[in-house]
Amino acid sequence: MRTTGSSPRRAGAALLGRGTHFPPASQIRNKVPKLASAAEYFFKMGAEGKRFRPTVLLLMASALKFPISESTEEGVFSMLASTLRTRQQNIAEITEMIHVASLLHDDVLDDADTRRGVTSLNCIMGNKLSVLAGDFLLSRACVALAALGNTEVVSLMATAVEHLVTGETMQISTSREQRRSMEYYLQKTYYKTASLISNTILAGHTADVSLLAYEYGRNLGLAFQLIDDVLDFTGTSASLGKGSLSDIRHGIITAPMLYAMEEFPQLHDVVDQGFDNPANVELALDYLQKSRGIERTKELAQEHVNLAVKAIEALPDSDDEDVLISRRALIDITQRVITRIK
């Protein structure tokens, strides 16, 4: 894959800058002001994150752009480009609505007090309205999907939502053996985190190109979550926007602890007892500190980043400068995922 001298680091911001806020207010208006206010809460506060998913989606859409026939009249070309751009942005907005809906539901399930440093909606308005706000966002996403009139996109997004529910169910209903299984953990992580990224960048391409886009999204999503798992142990509450040790305090066993269990089998008994007792939390952390759990999780994240980069480098050659900038930016994002501190 050829690269260019232009700056890929600004490509994501530039792409988003050409569009609107995520999502536009028209997408989440409702006749019940309290429900609309609840649904807009995280978007207004910025607690849903850094628009990571829509940034990746729009960059991938540009990275997979193939030239329209030179015989196409200039006016028709402009109209086609504008239509495609609008559809890509609509899908990005829909993706963000689905993502935020999942955050609202997650915070209720986890009884969370904060989300990225902002008081969680369930703490402010209660669990019932928070769940309803998440349901409302999902319903608006469905309406927006239907308006696209593309059955392939609808099918892919429906699959991503199904995976979100499946991943959450896997997390709250694990057996003792499953809690000790790295394979089970990675499958759950794909459903909860990576599927929404990988499935929203597939539509409208050949099988080979779609597979590469899927592999990029899948591996980027897994790497992102693995680093999240590391930061839950090493980050601070202020930088993470949630209490440090949030996962383990909720009894969720992630990659660093799974690796520590491999090195120290006696940790299995501590995990089986659960972490309602603060002494068990401290004991588990002691074992983790003695182990290579954090380092091995970072190494696994790097492996997935390498696979994501390999997928981008395997895309068909292009001489289009915008395509090359976007592909370089997608590679740059993988490195930011690995090195981020929040």
What keywords describe this structure?
342 residues; mainly alpha; two-stranded antiparallel sheet; 17 helices; 72% helix; 1% strand; globular
Please, could you describe this protein's structure?
By secondary structure, this protein is an all-alpha fold. It is 72% helix and 1% strand. It is built from 17 helices and 2 strands. The chain has helices at 11-17, 33-45, 52-63, 74-110, 121-125, 127-148, 151-172, 176-179, 182-199, 207-234, 237-240, 246-249, 255-263, 267-273, 278-290, 293-313, 321-339, and strands at residues 114-115, 118-119. The protein is globular, with a radius of gyration of 21 Å.
Unreliable spans: 2-6, 13-21, 66-81, 237-243
Side by side, the strands of the main sheet go 1-2
The computed structural class is mainly alpha
Helix share bin: over 70%
**What is the distance, rounded to the nearest whole angstrom, between the alpha carbons of the first and last residues?**
31 Å
* Secondary-structure element order, N to C: HHHHEEHHHHHHHHHHHHH
**Sheet bearing the most strands, described?**
2 strands, antiparallel
- Average pLDDT, rounded to a whole number, is 79
Query: Radius of gyration over alpha carbons?
Result: 21 Å
Contiguous helical run count: 17
General shape: globular
What fraction of residues sit in β-strands?
under 5%
Strand count: 2
